[in-house]
Amino acid sequence: MSVSNALHRFIGVGVFLLTLGVYVKTMAPAVSFWDCGEFIATSYILGVPHPPGSPLYVLLGRVFSLAPIADVAARITFMSALSSALAVWCVYLSTLALGRRALGGHSLKPFGDSRDIGLIAGAVVSALLLAFSYTQWFNATEAEVYGYSIFYTCFGLWLILYWEGTGHGLQNDRWLLFIAYLFGLGGGLHMLCLLTIPTLAILAWFADEKLRRLIVQLIGFGLFAIIAMAILGSGASAKLVVLAGLLGLLYHLYHTDRRACYLLLGVTVLFALGYSTYMALYIRSGLNPAIDENDPENWRAFLAFVNREQYGSESMLLSMLNPRADRAYQFWDQQMKYFIQQFPFPFLERVVTFQKATGSEPHPIWISLLPYGLGLIGVVWQAKRDWRRFAAVLAIFVIMGFGLSLYLNMPNPQPRERHYVFGGMYLAYALWIGLGWVAVVEWIRPRLAGIHSSALVAVAALGILLPIGTFAKLYHLQDRTGDYIAYDYAYNILQTCEPNSILFTNGDNDTFPLWYLQEVEGLRQDVRVVNLS
Length: 533
Hints:
By secondary structure, the chain is mostly helical. The protein has helices at 3-26, 36-45, 55-65, 72-102, 115-131, 134-140, 146-166, 174-187, 197-207, 212-232, 236-256, 258-275, 279-286, 299-306, 316-319, 327-340, 369-385, 387-408, 423-444, 453-461, 465-478, 485-495, 508-519, and strands spanning 349-355, 362-368, 502-505, 528-531. The chain contains 23 helices and four strands.
């Protein structure tokens, strides 16, 4: 192993451990508001949370809840810290691969010269800046599914870059099959990772000419599936039509392209195998756990549960044509507000005033021009040097930003600020910020050619000031040390009840902390909680 290769690996492990340490130090010590109490409680008792259920989270949460360290809430919250730190590690590796390609090298092999200095520095900037960004840090310190969600997204991106770098063809299709299984598992946590598929298709298109025909056919099949779902809805008839179309495509490929046929068949089977974690909810509901939302213990109720029918039968695709709120509000006061909220830095700051998601009150956000300006440098630099992989990152940025904003079509007002929805958009820009720093160091490098290499190392290391500044700006907001507000709120409510009371609640924050105290802590189980909503 070369010195450069060993160095980048040690630094990558260091980035992971540093991030994990910060997340553990600042994570919630007990239950938090919103879905956290529900997820902790259902993980502990293997119950059924709200649709669509996140079964893999419940199963993994049960495993972590058995660890003989700290209390149950902290054990399950640690999953978010761990998965979020692993996502940051994947970002570090992906930035290195993208930077090497932009400099004309091999994605997995160091150059063995001074170019590696800027690449490692840019990868560290990209990874740590995302690690300490507003949403990534927020998701890493509470018991929610979003830490896992961004990990599966980042891991999927790194795997396709690894597949591209290690070669392709029939002998290396196993990595594509593994990605399919990974995304099937990801569907049992959160659907965000599936939006990475267009990026994977772009990278596969340019990496392997023999897969291009299959990709075109899959795009056609995808359009067919979307039209079928839009016309027929999300019911059984639409799924049967889509399944018939898939079988027809496999039959055609069997007679025209055996590799594509077996690859598509393997991808389909492994994705379904990963997605089969949903059967755990069906099985557990039949055993009537204390938390059994929607009671999906028969096939009809289970399909309604998975299809989220309790939230209404309106087609999400068709509803995009009828905005539920002003588009300017959706794109500016929600999506773009959350975007510029991510990377604060105590230099070149200005305030931009938006509207709060929960009402018409003004919501001022401080934005620093430095990280966002550096990201624009990364955009231009990668686009000029490596437009193929630039298109792949751009797909993440657009689909997980503007595409999601259109699809979700969020009304005004919202129950809370939903910054966590656009995590993939922040990921893409963090990659560009890291590549922007690579571009800056590369511009400086020939100007320091006659000076000792330590000078270049010192210049490249200045990039670490960006994540340090973001860390300093957000630490007081993200540190949940000693935050027992949700716990105390629920405790005080329960302890004021007479024996065998009926306690009426309305909404997540009223209900889920109570479930946590009753099912995990065993507190006041004589009180019957009745949720009116």
